[in-house]
Amino acid sequence: MTGPATLITPGLADAPTDVDLVVIGLGITGVGVALDAVTRGLTVLAVDAHDLAFGTSRWSSKMVHGGLRYLAQGQVGVAHESAVERGILMEVTAPHLSHAMPMLVPLNSSVTTFQAAVTRAGLIAGDVLRRGARTSAETLPRPRRVSATEALALAPPLRPSGLRGGLLSWDGQLEDDARLVTTIARTAAQHGAHVRTRARVLSATGSQVHLRDELTGATSTVTARAVVNATGVWAGELVEEVTLRPSRGTHLVLRAESLPGLQVSVFAPVPGSTSRFVLVLPQPDGTVYVGLTDEPTDGDIPDVPEPTEPEIGFLLDVVSAAFARPLRRDDVVGAFAGLRPLIDAGDGSTADLSRQHAVLTSASGVVTIVGGKLTTYRQMAEDAVDAAVAQGHLGAGPCRTRNLPISGADTRARLALLEQPARLVRRYGTDAELVLANAREVTGLPDEELLAPVSDRVPVTLAELVFGVTHEGAADVDDLLDRRTRVGLVPEDRATALPAAVRALELVEEHRAGHR
Ligand SMILES: Cc1cc2nc3c(=O)[nH]c(=O)nc-3n(C[C@H](O)[C@H](O)[C@H](O)COP(=O)(O)OP(=O)(O)OC[C@H]3O[C@@H](n4cnc5c(N)ncnc54)[C@H](O)[C@@H]3O)c2cc1C
């Protein structure tokens, strides 16, 4: 098979039983920890009960935040860390999976002159953060005020009456959150980490984990010098000292046709608030997300949180006020929700960990890393591995991830010169060639068939689906449709793509059978 053999596999067959570090959870935090640890020279087993990016990491707004809202709350250190990590992600580790996203705050009749001045001052402060983090203005241009005419050219569906201009600024946007997780997992595996999906940790101490292979039901024990619990909102299920209360954030998915010509993200102010906005975020695949809510939730933590009708109604109402045509319920072709962790401070109050992360070492020696955001995953991983190294008295090298491009990364200038199809370059960077060569070798099919979009509406290709199985550990159609690609965010499109996913799995199986 072209390139490295499958390095991410489902189940625990032939997994090591004694390693330096076990990482529990393969969201952005866990894969970041696995990559950090393995590149410091540690032996690593990293597992997830379900799949890569099964949890919160696939339900984000897919933004690489510069930390402006933390600055607004006076948290200068957190804001600076966010801006620094945004720069590292966009310029060093993952330029192929991120890009500058223009954002427009429309100045309409609901925004007073004072509010506009405050927002403008905030955007200028955000640019100071960018410069403080040494991120180039080529990566993220400077903010500026635009006229009503330019605002309407950037966002034609805006309501023109009362529009006196707009504030244009830039932040980072990911190609896709689950793609970032998958690519970091593959990079960790290439460096030698054992990455296993369908492997649930039933219990853990600082030196041992009990696991269940979710494919066979078999249980086993792995010994380790250190254990990191990176299970996000589920962290308290493994370490009783960690008490979390989640809060739900919901996004809607619209087709680009519902807001024709929209070229920028729009921040629609929530009526009556000077600091809350509903974000309208065009995506690279022809959809637009509208988010986000913040609803405290009680009770058991579900595997997949569900948005509610009142949340959907709230988002539609706020956004409709900014656009000429009100959005209706039937504009909504999908919706998804993720859970933010709120940590119980022990005195009845809660602290929102979505700003800052926490590293907690339990009495039994398990290091839990929780909170934070996609943007800061690298710093979170560094902090967690530092704690694990200290806890387990491990002989590890220094952290290397600050200067470590993940698989497929290159400079934007060199990525722009690649000749492979644009979609593959956007999703795999310099590995686009490998994705296509692999699909040719595995299937024997012509390029037209491998690169054809599944349908007019669904840009996913067979080449990507085959790569998901051969190189990214996808074990079934759900992995392919809901995490290696995100076609599952629109149920109608998921149904369209299902036969292609089944076919990819069959083609790889036939190829493997031929080599047995
Ligand atoms: C609505 C919303 C929007 C957001 N938007 C942004 C954004 O735009 N930009 C940004 O930077 N951040 C954003 N964030 C924050 C970011 O998404 C999260 O901080 C991050 O994804 C958390 O990742 P994690 O790896 O810690 O947890 P998760 O992604 O939840 O991963 C935990 C994993 O642990 C696994 N697991 C659980 N229990 C076990 C077990 N017993 N054994 C094995 N595996 C187990 C789960 O299957 C899961 O895959 C957003 C968060 C929310 C809620």
- What amount of the residues lies in strands? 15-25%
Could you describe the largest sheet, including whether it forms a barrel?
11 strands, mixed
The percent range for helix content is: 25-40%
**Radius of gyration using CA atoms only:** 23 Å
What spatial form do the alpha-carbon principal axes imply?
Answer: globular
Q: Report the end-to-end length measured between terminal Cα atoms.
A: 13 Å
Mean pLDDT: 93
Assign the structural class, choosing from mainly alpha, mainly beta, alpha/beta, alpha+beta, or little secondary structure: alpha/beta
Number of strands: 20
Low-confidence stretches: 1-5
Counted by DSSP, the helix tally is: 16
Q: What bound compounds does this protein have? A: flavin-adenine dinucleotide
Task: Describe the fold and architecture.
With about 525 residues, the chain is an alpha/beta fold. It is about 35% helix and about 25% strand. Strand 2 (about 20-25), helix 1 and strand 3 (about 45) form a beta-alpha-beta unit. The protein is globular and about 65 Å long. It binds flavin-adenine dinucleotide. Flavin-adenine dinucleotide binds near residues 24, 30, 48, 57 and 63.
